[in-house]
Amino acid sequence: MPEITTTTLLLLLLAALAAGWVDSVVGGGGLIQLPALLIAFPTAAPIHLLATNKMASIAGTTASSVTFWRRVRPDPRTALALAAPAFAGAIAGAVIASHIPREAFNPIILAALIVVLTYTLRRPDLGGETDLRHRGHRHLVTAGVAGFALGVYDGALGPGTGSFLVFAMVGLMGYAFLEASAKAKVANLATNLASLVVFLPQGAGFWKLGVAMACVNVAGGYLGARTAVARGSGFVKVVFLVVVSAFICRIGYDVVIQFTRS
Predict the structure, then answer these.
(1) Model's pTM, two decimal places?
(2) Is 116 within 8 Å of 247 (Cβ atoms)?
(3) Which of 112, 127, 131, 152 lies at a CB distance of 3.0 to 4.6 Å from 170, suitable for a disulfide?
(4) How much is the mean pLDDT over the chain?
(5) What CA–CA distance (Å, rounded) separates 157 from 151?
(6) Residue 205: pLDDT band by 50, 70, 90 thresholds?
(7) Residue 145: is it exposed, middle or buried by C-beta count within 10 angstroms (0-12/13-18/19+)?
C-alpha cells in the first residue's frame, strides 16, 4: 500500500464512518467511501481501491443486517429470495465487467436515478406502509429477478446498488421503506461478498487500511440501523431522497464531463 499521512488516514476513516451510516439506512455509502479512496490514492490500480472499498463495506453491511434482523424481523424467505440471486448476479457482473466500457453505463444510470426520484416524489404515500403487490410464488420470483439484475449491476459497476435495492422492494413489491431497507441490507451483504470472492484471489486490496476502515464502517452501520429503526419509514424515505439526489448530481457531473471530452 502506498504511504499516506495521518491526516489522510483520519479522513478516510471519517468517510468510512459516514458511508457505513448512509449504507445502513438506504444504501449509497459508496458515494462517500469510494471517491475518498480515489482522492487518497490517485495513482493506485482501480481493482485495489474497489477491493478495499468492499472490505470496509461488507463489515458495515454485516453489522446493519444483524441489527435490522433483530429489530425489524424481515421475512427470511423474501430476504433470501432476494439475496441468493443477487450473489450469483454480482459474480456474473464482476466477470463481465472487464468486457464492458463503464462510460456507457453513466447515462443509463443517470436516467434510472431520475426516474426513481421522480416516481418517489410523485407518490408521497409510497413506502409509508407495507402493501404487498404480489403474494406467494410470484412474490418470491419478483424478489429473485430484482436481486439477480441488481447483483449483476453491482458486480459490473456498483454505484447506488443499495438504493436501487431499497427502491425495488418499495416500488416493485410494495414494502414500507424501513422493511425494504432491512431486506436490501441482506442482499447488499451478498453482493459485497460476491465481489470479494472475485477480487481477493487476485491479490487485490490494501488489507491494513481495509481492516481499519471496516472497523469504523461497522460503527457507522450499527448507528445508522438503530437510527432508522427508531425513526421509522418516514425518516428512511427522506434519507433515500437525499442520497438519490446526491447520486444524480455526482453522476450527472460525470456525464457532462464525459460528453464534453468526447
Answers:
(1) 0.84
(2) no
(3) 127
(4) 87
(5) 10
(6) confident
(7) middle
